[in-house]
């Protein structure tokens, strides 16, 4: 009988097989489950897509373009200081003025003064429409021929508006008769609409400019059929 060594440690576990067993799936028998590689670096960021980069660059370029354009326009308006032209009504007279049986007739001769207050921009009037009103009712209108105004320039323009037997309602007939009897005059309104081109070098800008001359009294009191504007020249208001 073989004696046991008192200092020997008892064997534990299972015997290692020999020869070694080959795993059927190519991995060690006790290998842990494998996972895809993950970068846990906190400074790592995913790369943006080319489309996102392109859109970001286009947005940046468009923003810069708008800022530059706004700066150019700001400097332009500071240097040039464009101003609207002014219109003065120098005279307004009426002849052959009659109101009978709801029919109104008359000839109005008006004198206008167009002024360009700009020292660096010239003006071109493509068309001017003058309309005569009484108590918001349109009586007559006429168009003026195109003309130019240089810097700090002014020009007088004469025009004639005619009404031949146009119909007016009883309210207007009574109002005109009351004014002629009480004031010795009749107040008319004038509207001037102009299509103006502002010119400075290669710069061109077209816009409509509308001014009003309201409550212009013309002395046609009583049975008079003609009269002139009461008062001095006035500036038409925008």
From TrEMBL:
What residue ranges carry the coiled-coil annotation? none
Predominant subcellular localization, coarse grouping = membrane
Q: Which InterPro entries match?
A: LEA_2, NDR1-like
The record's Gene Ontology biological-process terms are: defense response to other organism
Bilayer-spanning residue ranges = 58-80
The entry's localization annotation reads: Membrane
Ranges of compositional bias, category Low complexity: 23-32
Q: Which UniProt keywords apply?
A: Membrane, Transmembrane, Transmembrane helix
Q: How does it sit in the membrane?
A: Single-pass membrane protein
Q: Where is this region: Disordered?
A: 1-32
Q: Where is the Late embryogenesis abundant protein LEA-2 subgroup domain?
A: 114-193
Q: Report whether Transcription regulation shows up as a keyword of the record.
A: no
GO cellular component terms, A-Z? membrane
Q: Which Pfam families match?
A: LEA_2
* Name of the protein in question: Late embryogenesis abundant protein LEA-2 subgroup domain-containing protein
Q: Which organism is it from?
A: Brassica campestris (Field mustard)
């Amino acid at each position: 009988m073989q004696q046991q060594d008192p200092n020997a440690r008892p064997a534990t576990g299972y015997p290692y097989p020999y020869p070694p067993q080959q795993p059927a799936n190519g991995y060690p028998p006790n290998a842990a489950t494998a996972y895809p590689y993950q970068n846990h670096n906190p400074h790592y960021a995913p790369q943006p897509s080319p489309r996102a980069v392109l859109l970001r660059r286009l947005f940046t370029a468009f923003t810069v373009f708008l800022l530059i354009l706004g700066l150019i326009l700001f400097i332009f308006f500071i240097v040039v200081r464009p101003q609207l032209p002014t219109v003065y009504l120098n005279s307004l007279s009426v002849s052959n003025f009659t109101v009978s049986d709801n029919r109104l007739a008359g000839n109005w001769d008006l004198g206008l003064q167009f002024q360009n207050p700009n020292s660096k921009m010239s003006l071109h009037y493509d068309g001017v429409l003058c309309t005569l009103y009484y108590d918001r009712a349109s009586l007559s209108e006429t168009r003026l021929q195109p003309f130019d105004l240089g810097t700090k320039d002014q020009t007088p323009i004469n025009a004639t508006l005619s009404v031949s037997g146009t119909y007016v309602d009883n309210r207007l007939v009574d109002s005109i008769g009351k004014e002629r009897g009480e004031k010795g005059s009749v107040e008319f309104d004038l509207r001037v609409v102009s299509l103006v081109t502002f010119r400075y070098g290669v710069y061109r800008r077209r816009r409509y400019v509308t001014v009003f001359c309201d409550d212009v009294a013309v002395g046609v009191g009583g049975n008079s059929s003609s009269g002139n504007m009461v008062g001095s020249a006035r500036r038409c208001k925008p």
